[in-house]
Design goal:
CATH class of the largest domain in chain A: Alpha Beta
Largest sheet of chain A: 8 strands, mixed
CATH topology of the largest domain in chain A: Phosphoenolpyruvate Carboxykinase, domain 3
Distance between the termini of chain B: 17 Å
Helix content of chain B: 25-40%
Strand order of the largest sheet of chain B: 2-3-4
Largest sheet of chain B: 3 strands, antiparallel
Strand content of chain B: 25-35%
Structural class of chain B: alpha+beta
Number of strands of chain A: 14
Strand content of chain A: 25-35%
Oligomer: heterodimer
Number of domains of chain A: 2
Chain lengths: 288, 92
């Protein structure tokens, strides 16, 4: 590949190669403060290539992201290149990761314990976790929770947070301008802007946390809290996992262990401030 | 008259974890996970003692349930059909 960059994010390393300089330059800038992977071997390789090989490789991702395709036109615009790199990293993780049970969830940590926020797209995981990361929590990740198959701990995967549309303004009011990537308008997901996690989230990205609370947030409607039974939590988390089936009995043991250990609640919220208050209240109620 | 004889995989082939009244089962030979409600877990447990028909299974788990024998047999047969359909039991 003509242009490439290696990234270490939490316990996972990527090499992203591109036929075009733009996406690689943007990634290098976005992840400039992250430590470099040790050695030459990366866990996953992502390639951004011209139409044919790229399209062939892209096909399996339809089931995962499903809501956009790359256009045939070349060269890739910066926005689409960054999106493609991000999607490629997601795809590699989702399908190739065997060391951890992957949950499509955001996680944030306080005093060694973590809250898991999971739910459908649009539930507000990214925004809520990014806000928690600005308000006394350590952002562990806005996209994937990495559950250790042996210890049951969660590993951070603090990628740059991919803010979409309305969430961009919310976070611009919270974080300094130098932590944002370029504004990318007109992408298939609308306007996107990346937010670099706080320096401590990056500095501590190899430090796992003990899962303590599972929340299923849902945006819209009045503030509400509902208990969720263990079997429903289990089923919802199997659906939120990209590699549960592939891990076989190890995935089963890890996930049933998590469900047995953690209380789980569904929360409805009309606005993000209410959601943050809810999270803090529920967190304070946890047994120490 | 005895009904069809069913058998289950060895106990080692299935992991089970109770989750608030239901039971999550991981069936290693198929790699599939199932969530089952009583009396399905008890049927599988009873078949762990060896193959049997619905009546035999019922007698093995009778002490757990207060059910009429005829109705019970029918219910057990219905559950056996379902367990067979998902591959957790098979006809001996």
């Amino acid at each position: 590949m003509r242009h490439q960059v290696s990234l270490a994010i939490g316990p996972v390393s990527f090499r992203v190669g591109s036929a075009w300089p733009g996406p690689v330059r943007a990634l290098a800038e976005l992840y400039g403060d992250y430590p470099k992977p040790e050695g030459d071997v990366c866990d996953f390789t992502v390639r951004l290539e011209p139409e044919k090989p790229w399209r062939r490789w892209l096909r399996p991702s339809v089931a995962i992201s499903g809501d956009y395709m790359l256009p045939d036109a070349m060269p890739l615009s910066l926005a689409l290149g960054l999106l493609a790199a991000e999607m490629g990293m997601n795809l590699q993780m989702a399908l190739g990761q065997k060391r951890f049970l992957l949950l499509h969830a955001a996680t944030a940590e306080k005093e060694g314990r973590a809250v898991i926020l999971t739910g459908e797209s649009g539930a507000g995981k990214s925004t809520l976790s990014a806000l928690l990361g600005e308000r006394g929590w350590r952002l562990m990740g806005d996209e994937f929770a990495l559950l250790d198959l042996d210890s049951g701990d969660l590993h951070p995967f603090p990628r740059a947070v991919s803010l979409k549309n309305g969430a961009i303004k919310v976070m611009e009011a919270e974080a300094s301008a130098d932590r944002f990537g370029p504004v990318m308008e007109g992408t298939p997901k609308g306007t996107i802007r990346h937010l670099k996690p706080r320096a401590d989230a990056v500095a501590r990205m190899e430090e796992p946390a003990r899962p303590a609370l599972i929340l299923f947030p849902r945006f819209g409607g009045e503030r509400a809290i509902r208990g969720v039974g263990a079997s429903e939590v289990f089923v919802r988390l199997t659906q939120a996992s990209t590699n549960y089936v592939a891990l076989g009995s190890r995935g089963f043991d890890a996930l049933t262990g998590l469900v047995a250990r953690c209380p789980a609640l569904a929360i409805d919220y009309p606005d993000t401030e209410t959601a943050l208050t809810l999270v803090e209240e529920l967190w304070a109620d946890l047994p120490q | 008259m005895s009904g069809a004889i069913y058998m289950a995989d060895d106990a080692g082939a299935v992991r089970s974890v109770e989750l608030d009244g239901l039971v999550a089962l991981f069936h290693a030979p198929s790699g599939m996970t199932h969530i089952v409600a009583p009396p399905a877990p008890q049927i599988l447990e009873a078949l762990g003692q060896g193959p049997g028909d619905a009546r035999a299974i019922l007698s093995r788990i009778a002490d757990l349930y207060e059910i009429e024998e005829d109705a019970g047999t029918e219910a057990i047969e219905a559950r056996l059909d379902e367990l067979e359909a998902v591959g957790l039991v098979r006809r001996a």
